[in-house]
User: Fold these one by one.
Assistant:
Number 1:
Amino acid sequence: MMKKWNQVKKYTAIALTAAMTASGAAGCSQGGGDNRQDSDTPAAAQESESPEAEKESSATLVLKNGIIQTMVSEDDTAEAIAVNGDEIVYVGDSDGAEAYIGDSTEVIDLDGAMVTPGFMDGHMHAANGWVTKLFAVSFAECKTNADYIEAVKTFADENPDVEVITGGRFDLNNYAQDDGTNPGPSKEDLDQACSDRPVILKSVDGHSYWVNSKALELAEITKDTKDPNAGVISRNEDGTPRGMLTDTAKDLVAELAEQVQYTDEMYMEAAEKFQEEAHSMGITGMTSCPSGNDDAISGFYKLEESGELSLRLKSAKVANPEIAPEEMIEIVKKHGEAYQDSEWIDTNVVKIFADGVTEGKTGVFLEPYLESAGKGADYKGNPIWTDEQFNEMAAALDKEGIQLHTHAIGDGAVNQTLNAYEYAEEQNGKRDSRFTITHVCAVTPDDIQRLASLKVVSALQFLWMYADPLFELEKAMIGEERALAMYPVKDMQEQGCILSGASDYSVSPYNVLDEIETGVTRNSPYTEDTEDMYRNPEQSVSAYTVLEAYTKNVAYENFWDEKLGTIETGKKADLAVLGQNILTCNPEKISETPVLYTIAGGKIVYKNDATKN
């Protein structure tokens, strides 16, 4: 039976069991340090009993009678929070919060509900999925190749004036063969749906395009066209292009894809839909790293200009080997000029692709792919950058104080990235760079130690850590033993690595509660029948560890830790209110936890129907 995101099942109210309440709601722990206000009446109220003074000491919002998981430490809990404007002004027991309640204070009786810092996502491609849903061919409801063809045909028939048809995302698993090979989708199938206009469709992982014959013709891709460096043109047995272009091979149809232009209003609508959806999941912040430098992210800029943005955004630009380091520095500076004083948008970060993806045969490994991958006996994947190019870009950006955020899937790409980060540190000296690598799917024990010693942030996709359909593709490329060994999170934690949480949306869903459950169980959060879906459960970690990854550690990754990531006085009031204690409940039920409220900047931006009067 499928589980549903954010579905309020048996939690018809906000109540918790007595056992959960006993685990921490009785009052503050002794480990809170100076993040508390004294539970006595606040100083402003003590100084004067006048109505004016009482009004000045009042909070705009008070949450009381709950389990407040501050994330300062695992045993640091409280009962109540007072918020004035966008700032937390009190964390302590419920009696102490009473002094902050005035005539205009909104009060939420949590009745034992859990409060955490607002969830954050350390690596995603924000709003892209909504652009597709609203304005392109969407495969969201499709399961098979036949479904894809029907969806394309329907869109083409209903949109005769669209000159280039785009959308996605197709699942490469639909094309696996009994002999372990996977040729991918074919242009001939797409031609059945639309042959008079180019069709360009993304894969689930975003690293491949499925194109029809018209697109290949216009891009002049033929049997004689060679694979570009770090890219793959899938081919039929006779060498003709089959219809799938992976990683840098996508660039061959870039001019066609760029003909599709969305308006600012379209991007803004997609951003609004995404923001609403994200808040329903308790999410208040994200790191958005586009695949290129023109992206749906502009919709969030429009929301910020109109005063409607309530998601904190770290927005990256993308570097590639064709861009000189000094040019990249200017791109980043120009990007940041408009948002220097923004409360909601930060820039000053560059994304680098060190490799592609395993299933696309473009991930870079230290050991060869299987011969069934079809790339020869010694093929390990081709790096996108030479070592010299990567080192020089990393050093130049780091010298300017620009943060580096690198995509690395294979252990070879992780190794090359760490070499570049070490080079930058050697050239510029130790500084608070907060170098980040996202994915880190395969990594050697030696490089786990280097991740820790360099204090590199690993932005991990916890939802990838069970035997999902992608696991079948990875096994077909590198073998079951190596595929099972991916995501050694416990080893990384024990070595002292900094782990942040990420989804890589719209490659995969971005519900943080699903991700937390998967990190604990190493099993699917979606179905009850999960007996054969465990993936290396010895590498599971605690719910607190994964919660920390999606709160405190994303704040650290983004240089937001002075204002976000923990519940302390003086910090921004970005909070998620949950219908059960996810640290003490059955781990297999974490994904069923309802989000009751989401608070961003001190304002309630999401309220579950079960909490409405």
Number 2:
Amino acid sequence: MANLSQEKRQRMLEFLHKIKEEHKDDDSILIALGEIESELTAKKYGLVWEQHEEAVDVMMRDNIPVFTEDMDREITCTAGGVYNFILEGDNLHSLRLLEKTHSGRIDIIYIDPPYNRGKDDFVYDDDYVSAEDSFKHSKWLSFMEKRLRIAHSLLSEDGLLFVSIDDNEQAVLKNLLDEIFSEDNFIITMPRITKKSGKTTGSFSKNHDYVLVYTKQNRDIFVMEEHIDPAFQYEDEWVTERGKYKLNQTLDYDSLSYSASLDYPLTVEGETFYPGGDIEAWEERQKGNHRRADWAWRWNQKLFDFGYRNGFVVIKRKSDGSARIYTKTYLNARIEKASNGDYYIEYVKRTKPLSSIGLVENQFSNDNAKKDLAVFGLKDDFDYSKPVELIKRLIKNHYNKNAIVLDFFAGSGTTAQAVLELNIEDGGHRRFILCTNNQNNICEEVTYKRCHDTLTTYEYENSSKTTLLERKIKISDFKDSTIPEEIAAVKLEYRGQYPKFATEIKDTYLYVYGVTVYEKYTGIPANLKYYRTDFVSKDEEYLSDALLKHIAEMVQLEHGVKIDGSKYLMILDDDQADEILSHWQDYADVRALYVSRNVLFTTEQNALLADTEIHIIPDYYFNFELKEVGETW
């Protein structure tokens, strides 16, 4: 069928070309016609919106964003360890600077941007965007598009993006992300429970929002959780290696396609068994009198002998003396066949992917986020903060336990707490970078406070749970139930082994856990630096000197270190080099030098530094800006 829009557009373009020819000597008309032509030939599928410019964009026309460290807010709990960062200021300015230090280096980005509810959640150019604003969606898209394009450039090839959003902008956000990250890198949109009882509008109660998931390039970056299936309820002497087992399969079965080679008498412990348990029926089958689908063993004789010797077989007897043969299905082991025909035991870890509806459990709700905040005295400050367990569950999807995690809508600082707790739980060394503005003093009084307290005073336990009771429950169990007595009996039995217990009902099963506490922390040890966004005017008389004052912040941010004059040194000119190296014997603990490209070491100095890690301070920090004003080439 004809593309009518294209035909109409072509007619209009032909008419424009005629007008151009008639006014070929009038530059102003030609410029106007060129703009019309550009609009006609612009993208015709995908998101189209009115582009809006923010005050933060205008600010960068005449000013260069830089970071200035607030030394008083530095926290050092692990001497010599890497640093995490809070970047105070408009996140667009922070992202522009992160492009200089972390392009292609961020492993995980989680953001919880404004949902644009038309209330008091989305501030654009210092004003709340109301529901009545006819440009509310285009303002939001202009705002998000700039930041998400930088986010894409920051992610590593194995990078992973999570974005929380609700119905107000979910549809357009999906389109925007498809355009920036490509549809091929879209993984899933996951519903997340917000609260059990939501505000009712019409016939529906709004109880969920979403998490959109995208990769940068590589889709094979996800790790799956170990799967503990309640059906595996029995233990034997191999439980340590093989895990628990279940007995849900008999060795004989009424097969879909009868196999004579698997229909044989099986002698075990002096007793002979026949498939189906009926010797007369077996004798008839041997005469050829069998159905298309009839009784046989699932295993051949060789496989049975191997399974029996290695504990994969159980003979279960009834009270009348009859018996059947069952095979064990272990959680973490199975029998495999080698290329030479022999059998062996393969040990595996059963895993399960995060379900597409895995975030609808109550632990991921806003109610739990409020409990998290209450620990820090911030209970009433946020209505829509996300719980720590949500961020932890998302982050640990990525294989890299040493990931750099960025949150440029940091809000209350949940991502920082999640990263630090997860490191304790799985032995990781992830670090975080948080970006947020200081509207209503949020960065200083909320984000920083929560990070400060998490590092210094937060009471945290590293613990594990052991299942002491698991049983399927039905609604009828709650009628004259003895469940409380069962739970109490389990706790009484194990009270000397576990300092605390936990119970839950999940997927129609009752669980009672014994909790083993490995370590208790008063503050999770980590390091933190606090930067503010500042500006240097492009009209500065000595621009390169003004920018040089902020180089240390960029070096520290890029490498996660502190330029302390002892372990980490910065050398910006030859005089500094001569001064430091003339007293090199006093710098026994040096781990790295950060050196300006303009510094030239002598042969003697190079010999002194032969075993020292040296990083050249890169041109890319502010080279573009200096070229703009003609201070470099």
Number 3:
Amino acid sequence: MNRMTVTAVLALVLSLHAPPIIGRQADGDDWVRYGGAPGETRYSPLDEIDDGNVGRLGLLWSLDVGPGGGNQEATPLERNGVLYSITNWSVVFAVDARTGEELWRWDPEVNRMAVRPKICCGVVNRGLALFEDLVIAPIIDGRLHALDADTGRPVWEARVGYPQEWATITIAPRIAGDKVIVGVSGGDRPMRGYFDASDARTGRRAWRFYTVPGNPADGFENDAMRMAADTWGGNWWQYGGGGAVWDAIAYDPDENLVYVGTGNAEPWTEIWRGATGLDNLFACAVIAVDADTGEYRWHYQFIPNDNWDYDSVQQLMLADLVIDGRERQVLMQANKNAFFYVIDRVTGAFISAEPFARATWASGIDYETGRPVVHPEAFYDTETSVTISPGPGGAHNWSPMSINPDTGLVYIPTTTRSSFTFQAVEEFDPVPGQTTGTARPATAENPIDDLPAVGPEPVDGPRSGALVAWDPVAQTMAWRRPGGGGIGGGTLSTAGNLVFQVVNDGTLRAWSADAGDLLLEVDTNLGGGMGPPITYLVDGRQHVTLMGGIGQVGDENVIGDTGNRTPPRMMTFVLDGDAPIPEGVEPEDADEDAPEAEPVDN
């Protein structure tokens, strides 16, 4: 492989542009966006809590946030001492960050019985957006609401998708200028992916961008769809095509570009999509569009002709890096497929990519073309099966990574070892909601299970999760520590030389950002269903807040009741906090007949 030579980190300037719509944020004191900054960096300049005193971190307060029945994956937002968050069933609430007192609550009253079977893949909600005095709330059944930030009263309602058409919302909206950007879930369902921009003050749709082409007989919405249609075959539109937008959105206010990561092609197997060897744009890609008009600017496809459910909706992080002595405006992604990508965010040009975890589907990335070098044996059909790493859960999924400008490192929650055996079904007669086109366990007489691997060796032990500190310029691993994984929890980096990590077993950890020394470990007793942490300043005191827990649906007639589990909670920590951590429900005390929580990746 003609690998590009890169220098050590010379400089890294994060995209911490002044927020275009919330003038009350000052010096990083608040956490007003899903990713912290417009560049989705999850870095905070706060340093009251640092590598010398983080061991004194203790609980200030905790709050039970209501019935669960799924993972609490939301990133809370904080502004002026008020926390805003949302539960897995889209119930929005506001909390006094000083005391943990709930200020208001608004329930969209989702028809849970009808909607749950339509959702792919799990009852989750990853967060909110703030615009002026509005809280923008995504509702899992396809609605988008704006609520008054002071009272919780609805201001406007919009419809983004319909569960009857397999379109639901689990993504956190993003603000781009005066617009709200939101995409739809629905991977592994017969739906066509898209994302919308709505006027943040009124909810009126400004534009919609489809991520895969529709039926050519209906015409194409734009030249981008006409171009994409040339990369599909057969009657792909009968199964929707895929390309769901369920996690990754970033905004560059300087370029006025919105970047969106897209999900897998549907169905998974190329032979059931109509024609083999075609790229299937814009599935498994990042698309850049004009924030004002939704007009296509460029794309980069991470996995042409995806056959392995390698959604490319993982976090898109924006930064300015010096590579080979030249400052580059880049977009970075730790992809599900185990490769860490650096892309020019102005032009979409490929810069570099190297494996941060074990991969057998490809031997690397061709630096001349930016395309993966896929093992021919990685493709499967009705008579052949192959075991591929990573599996559909990915080396890195939705669990947020973070970056630190002092170390120049990106901190990636990683699953270092996973695999899946693929074989195409003999006849593709999709059941609604089950349209992958694969069978497992595979039944081929001569299965392939020993493809050569690239990337770091997996961590030792029965659990394969790890926190990986990655140098995005040199494309090498600086350090790695066991614990965590690509799904659940997440990271936050601060100017105190810290990386806070929430592990999906309910553990809060703090590592030194430079050396990876473990400085703090707290068992929250939540047990699972964890969301990522945030940090902010109230009355001159730095706070760290997270959500987690699974609980039960709260209605025995609702499909998927997960039984007697620790109720979902919001928890806030400060230096010398001395509140007792509430007890959890021990696994042996839980309902033995309750199903395990779903491993969510959509």
Number 4:
Amino acid sequence: MKKQWWHDKVAYQIYPKSFYDSNGDGIGDLQGIIQKLDYLKELGADILWLSPIYRSPLADQGYDISDYYDIDPRFGTMEDMEELIQKAKDRDMYILMDLVVNHCSDEHEWFQKAMEDPDGEYGNFFYLEDKKDGKLPTNWRSYFGGPVWDELPGTDKYYMHVFHKKQPDLNWENPRLRQEVYKNINWWLDKGLGGFRIDAIINIKKALPLKDYPVDRNDGLSDISYMLKDAQGIGEFLREMKEETFDKYGAFSVGEVFNEKEDELKNFMGEDGYFSSIFDFNKEIWGSSDKGWYDRKAITPEAFKECTFESQQKGEGVGFYSNILENHDEPRGVSRYIPEGDVNEASKKMIATLYFLLKGLPFIYQGQEIGMENMIFESIEQVDDISTLDEYKVTMEAGFTSEEALQVVSRYSRDNARTPMQWDESAHAGFTTGTPWLQVNPNYTSINVREQLDREDSLFHHYQALARLRKSPEYKETLVYGTTIPYLREHKNLMAYYRKGAKTLLILGNYQRESQRVPLEWNQVKMLLNNYSELCKKDKEIILEGYQAVVLECLC
């Protein structure tokens, strides 16, 4: 594999609105990120991905962009952005922006011009269809519920939006539209960006000509996934985008790709793939249901293990996955992947160890490094997220009570990851001196950055140690490029694997509260990391305490 500048890095996702507020208006901002760069450097982060900060009406928290060339005033100015890029560069850090080009905002100039003249140049920037016989062009269901079609105001046409109705889909079949997208990407790369995270990119290719798909709910609509499975030729768009933009700058790109076809992985993240990397969502989508969140299965330790090893096996010899436990679209990882009642600092360190040392690029989401947990919502009125509100409605329509529906959506709500960052035990967790835009999790008095920085055995310091180990001259070659080989895979509630390269490392995690014995194949091992103060070893066997995780170098 040809070595790339980003291979040995550690990435960190920032949700700017909830990270740190520098001016007391209750919303995180770019100056707040600048003030925390040294904290992130201390953690071990090298690549910082910012969720959208472009000008936006925030119908979907910035993923509805009204101007790709401007910073939303809520977050600061273009001068603030340029300062952030430079100050990150001064610390050998790289800034990634979110590339949101499946759709824009209905307040974008392009869409405004399309409404004025739907048969003109900008009408072809979108998917517009004539109204016929009072019937929608297709029966596709949007990701946020309801049909993907809405009336184009002041016209006799519909426009397509596979997300929110304020997020009209861009027509990638139009070469002029594509060139406008590439022009904007290069404009930002000229400013010194390290690259982009590419949002919802699989949706840019629609199955044409338009047609209906099987109805799968009482609303008479069809899940959008049926259409996506039918769509062919996305590679032509993605290859062109890569050659016109990323390749010219040596930029890093990571795709949000949930449903690539079986034979497409190499095309997406191979050495000559469309992107540098794609996220591994195997465990995130496990247990999902077409019916909605209420029918979703909670993941088990064995399922977590199998999902992880399946992805590692698929990626071996192909390319680098980007490995995550959580992001802005998912609930908190420790609340999701650790069995209920067992969420504590030991189990948080275990889950961190198991995912962080896999082959691929580790991503940390803000607050993950201190073990932030899901919010306990007491009322649906506390929820801001449009996706959660739709799933609440779906759950109620399925016959659940309001209390049951709230419990269901609380488990998977995107707002779990969007509550403000917990910096200290002061008012509003030190996030703002004003009123936070979203309620702070009440557990901030016990889970916060200040407490963990002051404590040597904290989760923060464990993440710091993981980053340091991955970058160490002695073990970097093995942890970055070595093969992942499962060990004792059939051993229940034990997740164990080798990283084999220049050296041989064994990562062990006891995925249960009871202790268990683990046989070793090696006579001599060297302890590199342990989330407990001690390890019980007897001859060629070790005893792992509940949720104990260790990293061993195998010597002979």
